[in-house]
Amino acid sequence: MSSNQASKLREAPLDDLGDFGNAPVELALYELLSGPLDAAALKLLHRYQRKLDISRKLVQRYADDLGAAMSEREVSRPTYLGLARTFAAMAAREPGDDEDSRARLLRYVNSAFNCVDKLDVSDPYVADLQSRLDLLASEGVQCPNC
Length: 146
What we know:
It contains six helices and no strands. The chain is mainly α. Helix 4 (77-93) runs antiparallel to helix 5 (99-116) and helix 5 runs antiparallel to helix 6.
């Protein structure tokens, strides 16, 4: 999504999102992933991560507490790709040198794989991402200090 499209999304009333549809979860995730991940943003990302890992999908609308799905329509493939890349980057930053770090690394990798499952793995970019995730997973399993 270009910055111009994102700007239009931010400025449009929720009932007039045009080509984007009524997708507040995608807008929230785009906003979240567009800036620095401070403590509040990281907490929200982890809530979406938990929702994704439990239900194996994200939909476009949830109740305010991210509990009940208010829509059956899943988020778009680009949203899954953005999340997969974010979770892969977060996994790569984990040193994996103790049990807690290793657990976070593997959770991020698992979440990224859950996103990749929604994508076309015949796409070379997605296939490359999947290969990198395989490497990260194998690093997470081999914990020398655990």
